[in-house]
C-alpha cells in the first residue's frame, strides 16, 4: 500500500489530512528522489541524509548543511 495514480506517494496517508495538504506534501516528496549536483565534486548524485538538514555525497563523502527534507530547495 502506498502509491496511487492521483495522489502518488501521499496515498500512504489514506483519507487523512485533506486533499490540499496532501497535494502540497506530494510536491515536496517528489523532490526526495531527485539527483543534485555535489557542491564539492560536482557529480549529479542522490544525496544521503544523515540527519535533519545534514547531507552527504555518496561519491566523495562530503558532508554539508542544507534543507531539512530534500537535498535541494
Ligand atoms: Zn561529492
UniProtKB/TrEMBL annotation:
<dbReference type="InterPro" id="IPR011331">
    <property type="entry name" value="Ribosomal_eL37/eL43"/>
</dbReference>
<keyword id="KW-0687">Ribonucleoprotein</keyword>
<dbReference type="GO" id="GO:0070180">
    <property type="term" value="F:large ribosomal subunit rRNA binding"/>
</dbReference>
<comment type="subunit">
    <text>Part of the 50S ribosomal subunit.</text>
</comment>
<dbReference type="GO" id="GO:1990904">
    <property type="term" value="C:ribonucleoprotein complex"/>
</dbReference>
<feature type="binding site">
    <location>
        <position position="60"/>
    </location>
    <ligand>
        <name>Zn(2+)</name>
    </ligand>
</feature>
<feature type="binding site">
    <location>
        <position position="41"/>
    </location>
    <ligand>
        <name>Zn(2+)</name>
    </ligand>
</feature>
<dbReference type="InterPro" id="IPR050522">
    <property type="entry name" value="Ribosomal_protein_eL43"/>
</dbReference>
<dbReference type="GO" id="GO:0008270">
    <property type="term" value="F:zinc ion binding"/>
</dbReference>
<dbReference type="InterPro" id="IPR011332">
    <property type="entry name" value="Ribosomal_zn-bd"/>
</dbReference>
<comment type="function">
    <text>Binds to the 23S rRNA.</text>
</comment>
<keyword id="KW-0699">rRNA-binding</keyword>
<feature type="binding site">
    <location>
        <position position="57"/>
    </location>
    <ligand>
        <name>Zn(2+)</name>
    </ligand>
</feature>
<dbReference type="Pfam" id="PF01780">
    <property type="entry name" value="Ribosomal_L37ae"/>
</dbReference>
<keyword id="KW-0694">RNA-binding</keyword>
<dbReference type="GO" id="GO:0006412">
    <property type="term" value="P:translation"/>
</dbReference>
<feature type="binding site">
    <location>
        <position position="38"/>
    </location>
    <ligand>
        <name>Zn(2+)</name>
    </ligand>
</feature>
<comment type="similarity">
    <text>Belongs to the eukaryotic ribosomal protein eL43 family. Putative zinc-binding subfamily.</text>
</comment>
<dbReference type="GO" id="GO:0003735">
    <property type="term" value="F:structural constituent of ribosome"/>
</dbReference>
<dbReference type="InterPro" id="IPR002674">
    <property type="entry name" value="Ribosomal_eL43"/>
</dbReference>
<keyword id="KW-0689">Ribosomal protein</keyword>
<dbReference type="GO" id="GO:0005840">
    <property type="term" value="C:ribosome"/>
</dbReference>
<protein>
    <recommendedName>
        <fullName>Large ribosomal subunit protein eL43</fullName>
    </recommendedName>
</protein>
Amino acid at each position: 500500500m502506498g502509491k496511487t495514480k492521483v495522489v502518488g506517494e501521499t496515498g500512504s496517508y489514506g483519507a487523512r489530512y485533506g486533499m490540499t495538504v496532501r497535494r502540497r506534501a506530494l510536491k515536496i516528496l517528489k523532490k526526495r528522489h531527485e539527483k543534485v549536483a555535489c557542491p564539492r565534486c560536482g557529480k549529479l548524485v542522490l544525496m544521503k541524509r544523515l540527519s535533519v538538514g545534514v547531507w552527504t555525497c555518496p561519491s566523495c563523502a562530503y558532508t554539508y548543511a542544507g534543507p531539512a527534507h530534500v537535498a535541494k530547495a
